[in-house]
């Protein structure tokens, strides 16, 4: 028999592999479905790729790859047979077979026992070889089978990237000297202290200077001021500003000329007021604790509808999503997306086509995993009510505890969060940020096919006005979500809030327990009004004055989306960088009419700002070029002194007079009021060398990449995939310092005039706005939009609420999310794997609201 088995396996030996270090063995879940070894058909693990497949999908993999040998895993689950003395001790047979196996069922060891079975199956004849079978199988096969059976979960520990393995601890980390200069880094608004660049910024860990990096640090460009600062000071370590998370940050050593580890990064950042790494939070489903924070018991109870006898619902569209540990933000977003017909049609309607054309590794294919998850939620296969016999038996035992299983988003989360420092962690995250991340992934993976995110896309008209000249400029941009402020001053219970604040301060002074919190109640109309109010434009350069000036911006809807996303801005950053939640209740309406917020364009009597570029800063000339140079600017010293007599710093007054074009103390005073909060407000005026440019129709940045540097090929590919010519894309990236969003804006403001007649015919009108993703789609688009612009589904601005996501807790870095979705005329609450009819949906406590457009009839 041994010889027979050996001869049988000889043709397949080249295809059988032993898992190596770094290989992930998917033995707990199918790549196309949520079948597992516990399912009726078990799970088939390919002995070459180590991917898992359910009974319905293993044949597809065999036909596509020709791989014939699979390991079939089956777990038989039995309820424990209790006896008079309480029954036997729960046991597990063949305990070593499925080591570290993670399944969908949450076993209670006191109620169940299970037996594991494994065998090799050879396709297409389904010849079976029971395991273990050490004596009869070739040595290589035995070793491979043993390695697969004992491999850890594919998700327990991801393989570290090779770059992470090479990073060493810096020799400067332990003895780093930090200057006690009082520098505190704010949580936002950073810019290079030499060239005002706002990207690729590095914080020097010795003196707290924020400067731009070199061009090659991350491909986004820079003028190298951080390196220049090191050469002048020899301060060795710097941290990249946008990489700081509770898990750590990216640190670079100029002296060692490589990325390094800093074991004391928490203390080093804390020196400059960045304390988020020291924040300790613990989050569980339904419970949380935070430093110096009272549990918001009422909020948790109201949003989860605790204390009510909620009726569980089952079937298509009523499948829950398991919480993997702080992953409720994933579940709520996915539940809402797959309640929208566009996503159902794209991924579930095209299920077979997506599966048939999936790549050899479907676990790494976005469309496949979205289709898998959508089918799991909408098929009803994983949301079945208990059998009648089970109910009778459980009622007789007086222990009706039927649990909804739900599906696990583990494979999808692993894919969609790959490479993202926050979503790939096990910490709680902001659901709104994850929603936009998913939309971006949908955009990037929908080239040449239907794009369901078209339903969210809309154009915003931005009206920017120079406060001095009163001239205006109209821009358009693409957006997917409207962020509504929550103005506390509009609260209807202000007196109650003031009284609570006084009681809280008194309790703190007398070391007593704080009073019961009072929630601010804000009308929804006040939020809309605050959204339409003018905002100050930071670092506004007026082309009318040809100088920095005060500017204001207002926003309106240029188009209305088919599905409108509204986010209430409930979170803000404290000075310690920790996001904090504003406790508010807003009377969000079921029906919403935004027609009055439709954009109107340039009005009669308005004058447009001239189409002039601001001066370009040349990186090589920024040093040693100050007020003392030969070509010092003319400044009305009398006006500057007049302002200084009012108590303002002399240097600030000189800058105000210069940036307002010597137009008098009144204009300069307005500039001072608009810029007095800036960190370099009182520093001397330092002027870089400039190149005067001719007329242009761009709001060009103050920085430009070094001459001759080609933009990153990845950015060029993104723009060309949207249908823009390669030469135009390169020109846009060079003009905007390789900032993708600004490059898109530049393209739409600069319709191409030098291409061939064919291309000119395709873009004979000015495109509108910009988009962060591909805009290829077969969907119906607004008839007045050209193909070169972003695709939108414009229509009336009247909407009905159909879903909302709520957050419980004091910060986005802790707490719990649930969502409510209106289906078949009734509200349903989705709380992880539990899906029930809602008795009292807390619409006033939501965080993200979803509306669908009403028909015009």
Automatic annotation (TrEMBL):
Protein's UniProt keywords contain Ribosomal protein: no
EC numbers for this chain: 3.4.19.12
UniProt feature, compositional bias: Polar residues: 768-782
Compositional bias (Low complexity): 693-707
Basic and acidic residues bias (residue ranges): 783-792
Known catalytic reactions: Thiol-dependent hydrolysis of ester, thioester, amide, peptide and isopeptide bonds formed by the C-terminal Gly of ubiquitin (a 76-residue protein attached to proteins as an intracellular targeting signal)
Cross-referenced SUPFAM superfamilies: Cysteine proteinases (SSF54001), RING/U-box (SSF57850), UBA-like (SSF46934)
InterPro entries: Papain-like_cys_pep_sf (IPR038765), Peptidase_C19_UCH (IPR001394), Ub_carboxyl-term_hydrolase (IPR050185), UBA (IPR015940), UBA-like_sf (IPR009060), Ubiquitinyl_hydrolase (IPR016652), UBP13_Znf-UBP_var (IPR041432), USP (IPR028889)
Biological processes, Gene Ontology terms: autophagy; protein deubiquitination; proteolysis
Pfam families: UBA (PF00627), UCH (PF00443), zf-UBP (PF02148), zf-UBP_var (PF17807)
Domain USP: 319-854
Residues of the UBP-type domain: 168-276
GO MF entries: cysteine-type deubiquitinase activity; zinc ion binding
This protein's UniProt keywords: Autophagy, Hydrolase, Metal-binding, Protease, Repeat, Thiol protease, Ubl conjugation pathway, Zinc, Zinc-finger
Domain of life of the organism encoding this protein: Eukaryota
PROSITE patterns: UBA (PS50030), USP_2 (PS00973), USP_3 (PS50235), ZF_UBP (PS50271)
Record region (Disordered): 688-714, 757-792
Residues at the catalytic site: 328, 816
Domain named UBA: residues: 634-675, 710-750
Enzyme type, top EC level: hydrolase
Residues annotated to bind Zn(2+): 192, 195, 212, 225
Similarity remark: Belongs to the peptidase C19 family.
Record protein name field: Ubiquitin carboxyl-terminal hydrolase
Species of the source: Gymnodraco acuticeps
């Amino acid at each position: 028999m041994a010889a027979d088995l050996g001869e049988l396996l000889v043709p397949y030996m080249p295809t059988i592999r032993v898992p190596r270090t770094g290989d992930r063995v998917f033995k707990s879940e199918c790549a196309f479905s949520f079948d597992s070894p516990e399912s009726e058909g078990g799970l088939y693990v390919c002995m070459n790729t180590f991917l898992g497949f359910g009974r319905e999908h293993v044949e597809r993999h065999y036909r596509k790859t020709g791989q014939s040998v699979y390991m079939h895993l089956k777990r038989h689950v039995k309820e424990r047979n209790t006896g008079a003395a309480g029954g036997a001790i729960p046991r597990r047979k063949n305990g070593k077979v499925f080591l570290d196996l993670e399944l969908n069922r949450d076993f209670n060891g006191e109620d169940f026992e299970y037996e594991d079975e494994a065998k090799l199956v050879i396709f297409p004849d389904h010849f079976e070889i029971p395991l273990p079978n050490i004596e009869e199988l070739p040595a290589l096969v035995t070793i491979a089978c043993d390695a697969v059976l004992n491999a850890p979960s594919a998700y327990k520990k991801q393989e570290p990237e090779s770059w992470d393995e090479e990073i060493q601890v810096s020799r400067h980390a332990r003895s780093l000297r930090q200057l006690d200069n009082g520098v505190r880094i704010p949580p936002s608004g950073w810019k290079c202290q030499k060239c005002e660049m706002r990207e690729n910024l590095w914080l020097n860990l010795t003196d707290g200077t924020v400067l731009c990096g070199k061009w090659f640090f991350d491909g986004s460009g820079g003028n190298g001021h951080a390196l220049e600062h090191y050469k002048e000071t020899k301060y060795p370590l710097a941290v990249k500003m946008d990489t700081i998370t509770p898990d750590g940050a990216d640190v670079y050593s100029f002296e060692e000329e490589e990325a390094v580890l800093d074991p004391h990064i928490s203390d080093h950042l804390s020196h400059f007021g960045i304390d988020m790494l020291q924040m300790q939070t613990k989050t569980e489903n339904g419970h949380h604790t935070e430093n110096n924070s009272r549990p918001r018991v009422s909020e948790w109870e109201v949003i989860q509808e605790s204390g009510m006898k909620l009726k569980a619902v089952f079937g298509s569209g009523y499948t829950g999503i398991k919480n993997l540990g702080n992953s409720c933000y994933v579940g709520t977003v996915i539940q809402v997306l797959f309640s929208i017909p566009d996503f159902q049609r794209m991924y579930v309607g095209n299920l077979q086509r997506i599966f048939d054309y999936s790549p050899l590794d479907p676990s790494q294919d976005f469309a496949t995993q979205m289709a898998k998850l959508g089918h799991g939620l909408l098929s009803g296969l994983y949301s079945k009510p208990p059998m009648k016999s089970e109910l009778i038996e459980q009622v007789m035992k007086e222990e009706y505890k039927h649990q909804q299983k739900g599906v696990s988003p583990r494979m999808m989360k692993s894919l969609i969060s790959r490479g993202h420092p926050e979503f790939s962690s096990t910490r709680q995250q902001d659901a709104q940020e994850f929603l936009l991340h998913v939309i971006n992934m949908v955009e990037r993976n929908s080239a040449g096919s239907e794009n369901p995110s078209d339903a969210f896309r809309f154009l915003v008209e931005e009206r920017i006005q120079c406060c001095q000249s009163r001239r205006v400029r109209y821009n358009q941009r693409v957006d997917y979500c409207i962020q509504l402020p929550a103005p506390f001053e509009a609260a209807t219970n202000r007196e109650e809030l003031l009284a609570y604040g006084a009681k809280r301060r008194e309790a703190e002074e007398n070391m007593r327990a704080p009073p019961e919190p009072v929630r601010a109640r804000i009308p929804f109309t006040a939020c809309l009004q605050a959204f339409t109010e003018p905002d100050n434009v930071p670092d506004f350069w007026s082309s009318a004055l040809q100088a920095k000036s005060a500017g204001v911006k207002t926003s309106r809807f240029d188009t209305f989306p088919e599905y409108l996303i509204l986010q209430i801005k409930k979170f803000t950053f404290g000075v310690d960088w920790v996001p904090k939640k504003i406790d508010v209740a807003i009377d969000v309406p079921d029906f919403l009419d935004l027609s009055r917020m439709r954009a109107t364009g340039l009005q009669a009597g308005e004058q447009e700002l001239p189409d002039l570029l601001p001066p370009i800063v040349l990186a090589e000339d920024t040093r040693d070029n100050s007020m003392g140079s030969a070509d010092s600017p003319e400044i009305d010293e009398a006006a500057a002194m007049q302002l200084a007599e009012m108590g303002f710093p002399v240097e600030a007054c000189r800058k105000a007079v210069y940036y307002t074009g010597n137009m008098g103390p009144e204009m300069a005073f307005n500039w001072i009021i608009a810029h007095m909060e800036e960190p370099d407000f009182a520093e001397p005026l330092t002027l870089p060398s400039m190149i005067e440019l001719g007329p242009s129709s761009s709001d060009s940045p103050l920085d430009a990449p070094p001459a001759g540097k080609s933009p990153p090929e990845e950015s060029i590919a993104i723009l060309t995939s949207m249908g823009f010519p390669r030469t135009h894309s390169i020109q846009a990236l060079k003009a905007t310092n390789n900032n993708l969003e600004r490059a898109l804006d530049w393209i739409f403001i600069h319709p191409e005039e030098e291409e061939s007649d064919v291309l000119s015919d395709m873009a004979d009108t000015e495109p509108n706005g910009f988009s962060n993703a591909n805009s290829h789609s077969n969907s119906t688009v607004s008839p007045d939009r050209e193909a070169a612009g972003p695709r939108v589904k414009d229509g009336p601005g009247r909407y009905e609420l159909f879903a909302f996501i709520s957050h419980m807790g004091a910060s986005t870095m802790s707490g719990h999310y649930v969502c409510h979705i209106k289906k078949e005329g009734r509200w349903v609450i989705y709380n992880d794997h539990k899906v029930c009819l809602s008795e009292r949906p807390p619409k006033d406590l939501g965080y993200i609201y979803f509306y669908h457009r009403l028909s015009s009839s």
